Task: structure prediction
Amino acid sequence: MKILLILHTYAADGEFGSFALQLVEGFANTGAEVHVIKANDLVDGLGATALSSELDKNKIKSYFTRNKFDLVFNTNHAGMGGLIKKYIGQAPVISWLVDRNPFLHAGKNNNKLFSKTTHVITSSRANVDNLIYKFNLKEDNIHYLPFMTNPLSFNDKINKSINICFIGSFFVNEKVVSQLLLRNYKNKYYLRVLDALSSLEDDFDQDDESLVKEIGLCSLLKKQKISPSRFKGAIGNIISNKKRLDYLSEVSDLGLHLYGTDNISSLATHSPSLASCFQSSYFVNSRERLCNIYDRSKIGLNINHHQATTGLSYRVFDILASSALLVTNKQRKSDLEYLFGADHPVPIYSTSRELKTICKHFLQYESEREQLIQECNQLVAEEHTFDQRAIDLIRIAYPKFAVQTGRSMPVTFIQKNDLVRDDGLMANKRPCYNIKEMIHCAHNLVSRH
Amino acid sequence: MNIFIFILSSQNFDGDRDQIISYIQHNALLHGKFVSILTAADIENRDFILDNHDASYIAIIKSMSFQSLRLEVLSRMKVIYLNHSIDAFNDAVNKFIFSNLAGPIKKEADATEDTSVLQVGPRDKFSVSKFERFEPYLYFPKKLSKPASYPLGIDFSMHCHSSEQSQFVLKRFDVSGFQSITHMLSTRNSMVRKPSELGQSDDLIDFLLSPPVVKEHPLDFINKNICDSRTADVFRSVGKINEVVGGIDIFINPVVIKNISLSYNLLCTEGLNTFHLVRSKLGIGAYAKYKLFIVGHGYRIEELSDIIFFDMCLPNTLFLYDEIFFNDIEKMIGEATDALCFYKIQNLACKISDLQDKVVRQATIEKINIAYSKCNSRSIKQLVLRSLGVG
Result:
C-alpha cells in the first residue's frame, strides 16, 4: 500500500505540528509506504482558489508517474485542484475536514469541489448533513470520524501542581460583526445582525448562505464585501469568546492556569482577574509542553469552539488520555454520548455555576477524581489513537486492509523544490525521515485548540 | 504665597455670586482680615505689594478675565477657581497662555515656590489637575427640579478595545510585569491617581518608567482598564438588575459594540433592547430623566466631577456610584461623600431593589441633598480659612 498525504500547516514557521506528524506516524505504523507533501507548497496561501502557478508540470507528472499511489489522504481538501487532481487519476481520495470547511484549492464551485471518488471525513456528526447539502455529496461518500490522541505521551507520575487548566485561544476578529453593528445602528440591519447572532448561537450547523438570505443580510454583506462564511465564522468566534469568558471567569479564583496564544492577554481589558491566570511565560508550542500541563493538572477544562457544535476537539481526547480530569461543556446531541454512551464518566456543565460546583467538588474529593480519570483513560486507550485512526481512514477506501504489524516504513517528505519550477527534480536527494524523531523535534502544535 | 485670588466665573454663578462673596467676606472678617472685591482690571492696574511676609490678602475677581492679567501678576497668586466646569477653566487658561507666551518656557517640574505656575511648555496643554496652586472647586449648582420619569438608566461606556489595548500590555511587559498589572487591576479598590499609589512593585515601576509605545499616560491606561473591568462586572449583573427593575435604559458607546464578545449578553439578551448609542459623554439631560442612574466608569477625575455636579443639580435623580470612586469623590466633597449611594458589584442588584421602595428612596435623596448643601457652605468656609492661614 502506497499512500500520499497532503497536509496543511498553519504554523508561522511553516513546519508541521505534532498533530500532523503523529498522524503521519499512524499511517507509517500500518506498514504502508507513506509520502508527505506540504499543502502549503502547492498554493500561494491556503486561502487560494487554485494551485500555485509556480508548480512545475513536468516535475509533478514525473513524480506521479514514478509513484502510483493507492490512496491520497489530505486535510481540508488541501491541494486537490489542477495538476495534482489530474495526476492522482482514479486513486481514491480521502479529505478530512479538520476545520469543518474545505479549502477551495480545487475551485470555488461547491458542486464540483469533490469528485465522485472522494471520501469526505468530518469530526462533527452534525456537520454531515450540512456537507451533503452544501457540496452535493452522496451519503456514501461522507463519514464521521472523531479526532484522536496519543495516550503514550502522558505521564501520570508527575506531581499535580495546577488545580485547573485551560489551553486555548481567545479570538480577536470581532471587527467584522462590530463594524456592521456600528455602521447600522438604529437601522433595520442592526437588529438583523443581532438576529443572526442569536440564530447561530442556537444552531451553528445551519447553512451560512441560507441564513443570510433568510435574515435579509445578503445585500449588506455584499456591499461590505463580507462573504456569508466569513460572517458566520466571525460570529462563531464571538460566541466562543463569550462562552470562554463566562466560564473561565467563574473558576478564575479556583487556581486556574490559562495557556494559549498572546490573544488571551486581551482578556486584561475584559476581566483582569481572569487575565491574571494567563501563564504567558509558558507557550504551548510542542506536544511535550501540552502533555506536561495536563500531567500537572488536576482538572483539564474543555470549552468547545462554537463551530464544533456536536463535535469533540483534539483537546477532549488529549485530556481524556491524560491524568487530569476532563470537565467539559454541554453540547446538544454531543458526540461524547454517541461515542461513549449516555453513562460516560465525563462531568459536564451547562452553566458557569455548575462548572464551579463541579470543579470545587473534584478538587476536594481526590479519590473520586482519580476513579473518573481511570475510566476516562480507558475510553480512548484503544479506539481513539493515531494508529487506529489511520487504519480507520485506510479502511474507508480498502475495507479489507490488513495492518502489517511491526513494520513501520520510513516516510518520504517531498520538498518544495521537487514540485515547483527552476530547480531540478532531486530524486536521489529526496529525504527520508524517521518519523518518530521528527515528532520529537516538532515545535509547533497544529492542534486547533 | 500670600495672595489668594478667588475667581468666580460669572457664567454659572449669576444668582449666587453675591451670596458667595458676602459669605467669604463674613468669614474673613471674623478673623480680622479684609477682603477686596476686585475685577481683573483692578489687579492689573493696582500696584500690589507682593511681600512674602505680608499677611494673607484675599481678592475676589468677579469674572474670569485672564486675558487682561499679566503673567507675572498671575504667577504670584494662589488661584482658587470657583466653578463647576474645569474644562472651561482649562480652556480659558490655555487661551491665555497661548496668546501671551511666544517662546518656550520652563516646565512645571522646574518651577519653584517663587516661580510661575504657568511655566508650561508651549505645546503642553494646561490642565488644572497638574498644578497644585490651582484649586478647582465645585460650588452652588443651580438645582433642576424637573421630575424624573424613567426607572433606571445605566451608563456602560467603555474605554479600551481589547485587541488594541492588550497589545500595549504585551509589548511592554515581561511575564512578571503582566502578572503584576493584571493582579493590580483585579484587586484595586480605588483609582490610581499618583504613581506612588502603585506600591513598591518593581514590575509596576518598570512599567511606569518604560518608554511609552502608545500615546497614553500609563496611569490613564491603568485607570481605563480598572474602569472597564468594573463596567464588565456590571454587564454581568444586568440580568439580575433587569429582574429587579423592568425597563432599563442602557447607554453604550461605540467601544462597547467593538468589544462584542464581552457585551454579547448585554446586546443580545431579550428584554434589554432599550439601547442608546452615545458617541460623547452623557449630558445632564440624560441623567435628569431617570429616578435612578448607575453612573458609568469615567477614568478621568474631571468626568467624575462633572457627574458630581450633575448629581448636585438633580435632586430627583438618585445617582449610584461604584465604590471605587469613593476616594476621588471624598477629595471633592469631603464628608458629604458618606451620604451618597455607593455599590459593590456583589450587592448592586440588592441595592437597586432596596431603592425601589418609595420611602427609602425619598429618605436617601433627602440625605444626599442635605449633605450637598452642607458641603457647599462648609467648603467655602474651609477655603477662606485656609487662605487666611488659619484653616
